[in-house]
Amino acid sequence: MNPYELSHRAADELREMTGVGSYDVAIILGSGWREGATALGVPSSEILSSSLSGFVAPTVAGHSGQILSVRVNDKNVALVAGRVHLYEGNSPDQVVHPVRTVIAAGATSVVLTNACGGIDPAKGPGTVVMISDHINLTSTSPLEGAAPPAGYGARFVDLSDLYSKRLRALVNATVPDITEGVYAGFRGPHYETPAEIAMARTMGASLVGMSTVLEAIAARHLGAEVLGLSLITNYAAGVAAGALNHLEVLEAGQQAASSLGALLARVVPVL
Fold first, then answer.
1. What are the residue numbers of the active site?
2. Which of 14, 168, 197, 249 is deepest in the core (most CB within 10 A)?
3. What is the distance between the alpha carbons of residues 71 and 221, in angstroms, rounded to a whole number?
4. CA-to-CA distance for 99 and 10, rounded, in angstroms?
5. Cis peptide leading into residue 189 (ω within 30°)
6. Structure confidence at residue 246 (pLDDT)
7. Does the domain made of 3-270 have the CATH classification 3.40.50.1580?
8. Under a CB-based contact definition with an 8 Å cutoff, are residues 49 and 55 in contact?
9. Cα 125 from chain centroid (whole Å)
């Protein structure tokens, strides 16, 4: 079964298990964002993502492997808590399978959240930045391999409006103090060296992480609008003194939970 057929099977299972006929918005919850997402309301259903075809269980602390359904105003929202990454030994198709599934289940807007390192010294830990563009340094793509089957767009998808200008304008009108930045996606799992961060800065990046870029490509290929939100949890290597560790990332997410929730509660209704 090709990955597109597999995502449709998983979408059918998701709709059956949750009782939600179609989703409008999907939010992929990065490290620290799950706690904030509780501000969107009490879920009408909560299922293990591993119970759906094609899903692999996450192995990273802070990623729980669940899909929650929440009604926000007139929108059905899927909260995907349990991102998987290339560095866990997954293929690009496995990494983007949750995104393809929620789009197959109806979502036309996909919000990709993440915890990231900050390259700009003026934007410290606890700051949320909207992604304006990305630099894919993972050396792969979810569109590699066999061409998409009939009925899907060509693999040569245009990414000039990858992070939707329309959605970003809506968010800017609602949260006027939010700033934008370019996200550099590395493969990981190790943190980047100071030289690699200097390279990313020279290339125009102000954010760095190990997720998001493949999911954004897959979502855009399927015609969904993409919004990216990055929580800066630490300065990137060489920007500030001190060693980097994942515990710091989780702690920063927990400390920012209330502000992340308030932000999501303002953003989701306008999408």
1. 31, 63, 85, 87-88, 115, 210-211, 234, 246
2. 14
3. 26
4. 11
5. yes
6. 64
7. yes
8. yes
9. 19
